[in-house]
């Protein structure tokens, strides 16, 4: 403690003295610079005043001593600073005017000042014969046409401030020494007083470092140290609580690991499994005693073992899709992560972490999508095959039998209609995405359109036990210009989704509409209290065939195209769509449509002109 007291006192004293010296030194510099700047500014003002007075003169006026030059001399002398000496020279450097401070009358030119007579203004500082600091300002003065009319020289003495600067330095340093001596006496007394409480605090901290969180500091009458002791007591209480929290967090972490759907294995440098969660036990069909066994002994699958070995040898992360055939067939998305040893963490060497995600179901659903495309192709092929078969039969002679021919033609007609409907559906989807559908705008009563859509979805809403809320006042509400067919298709898809992906019981759907403050957009919001959408899926829900929950979407009859169609329809109507969702709380889809779509109105006008021309 004594050593600490001595060190603190010495360092503080030296710093205080050094600070005082630096302060005095910088103050002297500031004073000197300030004096120089103010003097230079004053001399510059004098030159500018002369230029202002002589702005209408020429060099000939000065040489010929014209009446205008005589009047200017009088005005210049009236504005002169008595501390300065002003001399004016004609083009031949002959002095034509000199007045002001007589003490400066016989001071010769400096070399820099002499050279600056025919140049721009130059400022020079020098010591005169009387050891006084003199400032010299020389250069050309010009008239308003920027033509040189004469040269000017301004001189000014500056009082020596060195003595004042020295006094300031002595006072600053001397005062700081006195203050340090007083401070030393105070600190000596104070440190003696606080030594015992500090020893007590040191003992408490030592006990805390050994995880004895029951120890507490008892106050000894020194307010500042007692406050610190109270803080240490609070720290002990916090450490005790944190110890409990750490234990709880370890339990939560273990719980999280146990319920992760991703299988996690942590393998040490010696290839021994150190950590395995429940998903890993399930995916790899592990025994209960795999901990501390080498992974080569418990894992199967040549590619999986090869990836782990590659990660060890290259010290780089490895990712691949792995097929397991024993003990059960699985498709895994496997990431092998190399974790190097950290220099500041003791007891933990380099490790490899195996993350295995079962994507068997995902691949199955992708196959379902492929099957969907194949089925669509088959549906196209079926009517074409039928048409071709019956056509060939008719050409081979069936035309002679009127009854048979009629039957065949009727079948061909049905198949042709079926083919046409199927092709139209596919083309409509393509046209929506490419904005090739015709635009037919009309004035729409929004509440009526919403009511019609809700009415068309009463059966699925009833089957899903979902209650739909909307404004059924068909005489009120918003009227705006848009495409009713597309608007209905948008509302049908969104409301149908809100019904299908809602709670099993107590599902609610709210439909509201309003107009933006600038009266440019109609805003339609469809909100539900259903299953919600995970944050990571929201950016992709408008992609074709993308489903948040593949199994859920399949069970509800979804194709993965509904929201993609909605997005393209809204875009084709010069609008936009936003979604806000919280998992297990519900989703809100908000559609913004122009209140008066100029694009639609122009298209409608073009259609009318085309019809008139026909």
Structure description:
With 614 residues, the chain is α+β, with helices and mostly antiparallel strands. It folds into four domains: 1-164, PAS domain (Beta-Lactamase), CATH 3.30.450; 256-359, Beta-Lactamase; 364-432, Signal transduction histidine kinase, dimerisation/phosphotransfer (DHp) domain (Helix Hairpins), CATH 1.10.287; 439-594, Histidine kinase-like ATPase, C-terminal domain (Heat Shock Protein 90, 2-Layer Sandwich), CATH 3.30.565. The protein contains 17 helices and 17 strands.
Key features of this structure:
single chain, 614 residues, alpha+beta, Beta-Lactamase, Helix Hairpins, 4 domains, five-stranded antiparallel beta sheet, 19% strand, disordered C terminus, HATPase_C_sf
- Identify low-pLDDT runs: 553-559, 600-605, 607-614
Give the fraction of residues assigned to helices.
Answer: 40-55%
CATH-defined architecture of the largest domain: 2-Layer Sandwich
Whole-Å distance between the termini? 107 Å
Count of separate structural domains: 4
Q: What's the arrangement of strands in the largest beta sheet?
A: 2-1-5-4-3
Number of helices: 17
Portion in strands: 15-25%
CATH superfamily of the largest domain: PAS domain
CATH topology (fold) name of the largest domain? Beta-Lactamase
* Mean pLDDT metric: 80
Brief write-up:
It is found in: Cell membrane. The protein is α+β, with helices and mostly antiparallel strands. It is 52% helix and 19% strand.
